[in-house]
Every structure is written in structure tokens, then in C-alpha cells.
Amino acid sequence: MQFESSEAYGQALTSDHQHKIFFIEDTSVKINALSRSKEVPGVDIKYWMRENNFYTVDALLKSKRNNRKVSVRSDIVLYLPPALRDSNGETYKVFTGIVDGNIVDEEKKFDVNPVYPWLDNKSFNKWFVPDGATEVLSLLPIEESLNFDFRKLALQKLICFLESKGLAKKKRIIEPPQIQGELFLSQDFIFCGPTCSGKTVLAFLISRRYGYQHVEASDFMRKSFLDKYGFDSDLSIHEFARNTLLSDPGVVANQVADYVLLMKPYRFIITGFRSIKEFEVLKSRLNRDDMKLVYIDSPLEVRYERSLKRARSDSANSIEEFERQNKLQQDMGLLEVKKHSIVILNNESLMSYLKGSVKGLITSDEYVSKLSHRALENKVFLPLEQVLMVALLVEEESGRTPLTTAEIAKVVERDFLNLRQKPNGSTLAVNKNNVSRFFNQKSNIHFKAVKSGKVIKYQLSQTGKSAALGVVRKFSGT
What we know:
The chain is α/β, with parallel strands linked by helices. It has helices at 6-13, 45-51, 54-62, 142-145, 150-164, 199-210, 217-229, 237-247, 251-263, 276-286, 300-310, 319-331, 334-339, 350-361, 384-397, 405-415, 432-441, 462-476; strands at residues 23-31, 41-42, 69-79, 92-103, 128-130, 188-192, 213-216, 268-271, 291-297, 342-345, 447-452, 455-460. Helix 6 (199-210) packs parallel to helix 18 (462-476), helix 15 crosses helix 16 (405-415) and helix 15 crosses helix 18. Keywords: Hydrolase, Nucleotide metabolism.
């Protein structure tokens, strides 16, 4: 079924959602010289762009007295449940943002903005020069482009309406709370260093043995990359990370700070920062003076051999590629971090490295209790996310991850339904549909999606492993 407008589409959807608020958005383009009885190309702009190139459009406009005027419009249709309708009984409300401009006189060739992919080289944005701008929308700096964001204009009107109805509040900026410290002397750690230097294995050991919350910064970068580009992008995640940090050094550090403030750990270890600016952003957000910056290093050839043994999907296939990735990390500011850090050299055996590092870093003799799988037999009710985390933690320790959603559901049904037992004794079932819906709704920092052929499988991220350990400790009392 095809709808003439976003309003018609909104009307068609309302029947099954009588008491819920929802909205849809669509974008349309009106090229004045081509629009007579209706807008051209209108809401079909994506298909129109595939069927036309700049030279055919340019020739067509020149045949129409070279009228290059154009309007780009965003329509947001908000469904109004009965409680929000006024006396005229309207079931929906439309919020519109319009930006006028011109089609550029000459097409330019450029790459997609790796940080802000909607500023691309495929959509109408590559030809559209907004009134008041000196360049096409796709080539404007992000701060300037937002001044001509038609969706932003419509969204601002929607937010104002929701605020007037008491359904939205402006976010208040508050000072971040001081995270409670331990009764005995301890410190939080920021482990930095090049790929395969030994940061993660040391962080996970301390997390498991001493109860530190381990947060891997690259998990947040990977999530941003997949949310924007998916699995099939030609853009390298290493290039994306470099460009992202050069554009906004605090983009990942702020997400990490939000996560730490949400989780409220007594102690934490963060791995994966690439610049001193990230450390400074985190320190200012968390208002802590006891964070110790540690740089873990190892010779490039040794790290490359470790990378080959690790055999991850995004690992370098040659020493030359590994060197290029190493250079990208240095470009992000990694060598500057080393100047401000305690340096640990990981040139010995794994056991010697771990034992020596723990002895030098951890001042407390207090271990957390060893995790027992018998504790997983307790009957409790956990949210689905936490059940999936616990199940994947156990499966990973047995070497059985990553898993498909169907496989994860089978594991939960077989071994962990006791974690879905309500106070009244009933058990809330978990099936493949529940698990698939959970992973399809949005990406989650605790999980890592892995593409195996055409199949997507899941395992815990490094951040997720530590969080899963925390879940087990919480309900088992260890």
C-alpha cells in the first residue's frame, strides 16, 4: 500500500494504538521549476535520486529558465490519544520544518562524513545549498549544518507541544555526584596502550578478583559505528575512531562517564582511551582525584603475534596493516597519554605480567568471593537483559559463544528460567521471539554482535562481561 502523504500514513496507523503516543517522520523535496500540479519529487526523493544524476537534473533545470529554487521539508505526524484531543476531535497533529535554498550549479565529489553520516554524498544534501549558506549541506561543518536542519525545526515544534502538555521536560544540567569511595585506600584505573598490549586481560583479572567494574571504551565506539553504518560498511572502524576523536575528543569519554554514573561502582577500570583529552573529560565529569593513568606497552612484533592468535574479525591480516592501525592510534594521541602515565612493560610470560602488575597496582588485600555456579541456581526475578548477560557469561566461560538468538533462548530455557521466577512463584518464559526482539530493538553496550556469514550472533562485550559478574555477585550475595 502506498500513501500520498505522511498524514495519510499516520491516519492509517492509529486504529491499534488508541491510547499511546507515537509519531512518524517523512522528508519531501519540492523543486520549484518541476512542481506544477504536485511536488516533484516530493516524498519519493530517495527513489528519484537513484534514477537521476546531476547532469540530467542540471540540463532539465536549464531548460526551465535555470530556476534552481528548492524547498526541503520535514513533516512529523504525532498521533493524539483521546486524552490529548481538544474539542475539535483531531486525532493527529503535524509539525513541519522547511528550509529553502537552491540546487548547486556544479556538483562536487567528496567522501561521506564518517562521524555524521547523514552529511553524505548520496542523498539530496549533496546538491542542496540552503539560503544563507555558501556550500552544500553535506559539506557544512556540523555546527553550521544544524542551523539548516529541517528535521530539527520540526522536532523542536513537537517538543514544545509535548512540553505544553506536560509530557516532556527540559533536561536539567546538574553537577555529577561524587561516587562513594571505599573504607580502605584504593584507586580507580585508566589502562591505555596500543592494541594487544595486555590491557583487557589485566583489567578482567582485577575485575573478577577484586570486584572492579571494567568499562571498555572501544565498546562504545563500536556501538556508535554499527548504529551508523552497520556490518557492511566499507569504512574501517579504525578510521572512524580516529576521525571521531579528532572531531570530538569527548564523544566516547562522555558516554563512559554516563555509564559509570549510572552503574555507580565503588571502583572501576577503564580501558581503550586513546587521548589525554578523553581522560580529562572523564575526570571532570566524575569529579574524582584518585584515578591513576597506566600505560601498558609491548613491542609491535610481539603484539602482532598476539593479534594473530586472537584472530578477531577486525584484526590486521599482515604486519603492514597492523603497523597502519598502530599509526592511526598514535594519531589519536596515544603517545601523549604515555607521557602522563605509569608505564608497565608486558614483555614476559602472561602469568608473570599479570602477577607483577596486580602486585604493583592493587594496595588492598581484600578479595571478592570466588564466583560459584551453584549461586546461579537461586530463584530470583531478573530483567531479561540481566538473564541474557548471565547466560552468555556462563556459555563464554565454556567456550560456546557467540550464539544466535535461537541458541541463546534455548540456553535460558534449559538452564536459567529460575532467574525469571516472580514472587508469586510463576515463571516468566523466555523464547526466541523475546530474545530476538531484545536485540533488534536497539544495540546494547553489554553485548557484541558478530556477523558469521549471513547470520548475526551475540556474545558479551568486555564491558558486558564485567557487568554480568556484578549481576551474579548481587543476587548471589558474593
